[in-house]
Amino acid sequence: MNQNLKNIVKRTILSDVIKHLENPEMTIIIGSRQTGKTTLLFQLKGFLLKKGYSEDEIFIFNLDLLTDLELFTDQQKFIDFLKERIGRRKLFVFVDEAQRVKNAGVFFKGIYDLNLPVKFILTGSSTLEIKAKIYESLTGRKRIFHLHPFSFQEYLSFKARVLAKIIPKEEISSYSQKEVLKYLFNFITWGGYPKAALQTNIKEKQQILKEIYSSYIERDVISFLKITQPLSFTKLFNILAGQIGQLVNFHELSNTVGITYRTLEKYLSILENTFIIKLIPPFFKNQRKELTKMPKIYFLDTGLRNFAVDSFKDFDTRLDKGALLENFIFSEIIKNVDLAVHFWRTKDKAEVDFVLCSRSGKIWPIEVKATSLRNSKISRGLQNFIKQYHPKNALIINLGFQGKAKFEGTEVSFIQPHEIVRILSQLKLF
Fold it and tell me: How far apart are CA 311 and CA 191, in angstroms?
């Protein structure tokens, strides 16, 4: 894929990271492999060059390369390297996959505490390793940014820019609903990993996802995290891919995979902390009436999930489209807003797909329907939740009806899937 095409996509976090370049704290960008961390570093470098900094004041190290990693094997050697290059202004040092430095937290803390005119921007692809090696040592010396695969809005923005080269700008000022849904279904099928999302050839898309999967298993799981049962880990990965949106019974799952309960917990922790899956807990206030503490499982990227189940069928023809659309909504929430995400289910089998919770105590129930509703009918589960918790707003996402309804004082909005982030912003839940 052409590197220039990748650079067209302005990531949502870019402006926040740029602002933080002026802060003496270390900037740490974390996210799974292939989400565009390296590309983001080069975009930041481009910004600095435009601001008047020279190539001699900006350094980018990729610690997946042994030649670059070698410079970080001796702290004093690296300090000398920096001092020799410090001029009238500060240096900017970008370190890709910083967790590969031995005793990384101590290494970078020691340099930071020298108060040299050096700004560090570090990236990492595993929160397990970042937390173990960097977080504690750098307390008060860092700010964390999360880089996820493309959100749908980022992907749609890219498509608009490509079309602008072909179609007069005034003709693409707004997409029709039909066009948006076409792009949405394609995005849900192939996911938001930049290389896969921006590639147009179907076979190439599949190959890219295969490489992302293989690289993750071979480099992060086997080589870096030292998993001794890679076949069991892969089996778990594939089983979970078939269970998105479902409750996870840990005992059942450990028996199915053929591993101990403790090993299962370890593997699930790895999958969560390497940004592959997310387990979301139930929302409850009455433990006697509301269900078990079993979590539900979602993938952070639907394309990688579809690779694991070996299905890239068109969205309309899929038997799992309900679960996939639900997973898409979950991933869009995670990528765009800082809210706690739960689900709600009672012993009477009333349920709501998502319950968003803000730090101020606001809650917002969300239902997801992979059908085209024709009217403002509200499901029994959502009615029960509203009666019990009286939220100010509720949301029903579907592929058809758009409008509003009132139920027990709660305003219920019916919207299409791609509107989720805009609506969250408008209601200022967070």
Answer: 13
